[in-house]
Amino acid sequence: MAPTKAKPCFYFAHGGCRNGDHCRFSHERAANSEKDVNLIASTSADIERLDINTGDATRASSTAQVQSDSRATIPCKFFGSAGGCRNDPCPYSHTSGGHQAEKTGNHDLAMIEDEDQEGQDDFTRDLSGALVSFSETGHVLKVSLPTDYSCACITGLKPGIQPETIVEILGGFGFNVSIDCVRIPKGTLPSETKALVKVEDPSFAKELGDRLKQQQSDLSATPHPIHSKRSNCRKVSVSWHKATRSVWVNYGNGGIADRVAQKFADGRYKVLGQSVKCSKAKEADTGWRRGGFSHNPVAWTITLSDVPGPATRTDVEESIRASYDKPRHIEPSRPSYRASDAEVSVEVRCLLEKHGRLENFYLEPISMGKRVKAVALFQDEADAMSACSLNNEQLSILEKGKLTVTLKQSTKIKIQTPFYLAMETRFDEERKIWRERHLACHVYVDSPPGFTVLKVEGDNPNEVANARKTLDQISQGVVLKNGEDPIWTSALRTNGSAHKRVKAIEKELGILVRRDKAKCQLCFYGPLEKYQQAVTQISEALKEESSPSYKIDLKPDQFSRMVQGGFKYVEQALGKNVAVLDVVSKRLTVGGTKKQYEMALAILNGADGIEIRASAANPSSPEGDCPICFCEAETPVQTSCMHTYCLECFEDSCKSAASTSKADFQVKCQGDGCTCPTIFTLQELKERLSSSVFESVLKSSFEEYVQRRPDAFHYCPEPDCGYIYRCTPASNSKPPAYMCPNCLVPVCTSCHTRHDGQTCAEYKDIASGGYKALEELKRKLNIKDCPKCTTRIEKTDGCNHMTCGGCKSHLCWVCMAVFGTSTECYAHLNQAHGGHGGVPQHLMLW
């Protein structure tokens, strides 16, 4: 008679039998057992079948493993989505049209990290409290202020309602709203279902609430606050503890047990390469039996905790490397949970997608840390913020283990690689500080080519903002000062001997010095301990170069002759690097002797005109010459129209474009004697400029736009505020209440001052005494206000055609008439005032 087969052990089937080989129940596996399949590693890559009680590891082929995993027949729900499946290996089927799809493998994490930053730039910026949209050439298309919008919170809605239904409901009440304006927050209770509707109409929320009340609707609407500041935080970091288990290691000798426990505690013994916690050796309770004391061969036990879940008896035994430390028995517990990382990530992604659409989801590669990490990038930052409600959420697949979900905020700058390398030690010092503040800093050298990108990321928005300030400060360099005065000489405007001396000092000290010709200063890049040495050497070198400089403002015909080849003749006559032609300011600077200055004047005034015309007829400008300074390009930047600029000249030209653009903002190429028709796009400028210079170009375009529209926008009058507001027409009634969201100071949007509780007329009547005194002083100093933007203008000499420095309007100084062009203004002066100069003094002072 065949022996009766032992009953299967329930605890062994669940991986937790502590009786081992002494168990009276069967520890055999059923080949076709569904439970047994679940004990096998959960993906096609996990081909090792683990027996936690015997410590044996039996190998099976990858193909057989996939066939035994029932999930391989289930289609992966993420494979066909826009973002694709980011789990590799994935236990579910990747099929397309009935055929197995080829897996692409893990993507580089760095690519995912920067997707929220390096996507297609829509050239929309938060400037002075406004959301500003720019055209492809940098002109301001639209300025949106928080006060231009209103947001209504609608309650009383049915659970599960869709945005399309809300649009239809609002249409029934007479409001035409697009579906993009409607948002239904996730994570609220069904009884609290609500919708947020944001419309570019300041009165929308109030009108909707009033209309719902009038028609006695079951719905209600209340105004919802709009945050004025815009952030970029669409990314969340998700993590959970890796599966762990406890392991009991038994010894017959207390000394050996203590020694092994200390080695685990010190990290000399590791399980699967990971440090684990270890208790002190504990002696088991012993009892008396008839005949004397009972001998226990495994009387001493040390308990290992935080042991990696996949670890087997064999793994633990192999971690105890010394033969004299080997234990008598090893007993592992069941793991904290059995699901694979891939299975958990599928569950996590499902939870995240309940809060909004994902642009990307990435499961990080297995690391030696104790947590599994994933990164999710949402399409909408509001959804990312909503997903943070999953923090500390318990998951059944983790057997009550909790998720950690944090919102990631990041900032980055782009600087030229040589300047980064010069300041690398300073950046490294800051990185140590940021690491202590739980900020991650990533450096991408020569990505894109010629530039280095530094990115700081963290959970604390204030810490990230402070890190950005530090990045900006370091990337701008340190102004070289001798005492309180910046080090500068006009000889540095050319690439002559003064510039060559500075370059020699750069090479000697291992630093970089950048010329800022607009501000007449030098910026230092390098270790701070070399700063004073650079100040001393450069100051001494420039003393020998000090010489008077003469500036000549060029008339239109003179400027045209210079850029069409005449400047080359000036160089031949005066010598190389003596004269500098600035095509932006249309000015010729002569840095030589008075005799050379007079020679330049003579050439400009027509002397030797034949030579100039001959030179202009055959301009010879080498391809490598910068069209701004007409010198060989230093740190060359080549544009799409194949002109080569010095980096400094190109940056200065871009930064000054706002003041030189006659109509809409544009950065025009100065090549071919300023006749090149190319207008640079913002995309091209972004590729060729550092991030700080590019952002300053956008800011200057915006500031110029605001200055030219004084009837539409004004800056907050509070010092150092910088926010703008939209103007309202003056009236006898009290103006609408407005409080600056930056400095929290109430401002009248009609007369642009603070007069709480008074009309504009009442305030002006009270303040008229001081106003009269100011007007009298302005008459004495020959200062007038621009009729269009109220910018104060002082006239000292010249003709009566004036250009406002604020809004760029053309003004008649006699009667303060406003014109759009200089031609119209001169025609008016000739017709109304008998000429554009020589006006009697009593008219000059109106």
From TrEMBL:
Residues 3-30, 70-97 form the C3H1-type domain. Transmembrane segments: none annotated. One of its GO terms (biological process) is protein linear polyubiquitination. Pfam families: IBR (PF01485), IBR_1 (PF22191). GO terms for cellular component: ubiquitin ligase complex. The keyword Iron-sulfur does not apply. A zinc finger (C3H1-type) spans 3-30, 70-97. Residues 622-837 form the RING-type domain. This is Uncharacterized protein. It comes from Cladophialophora immunda.
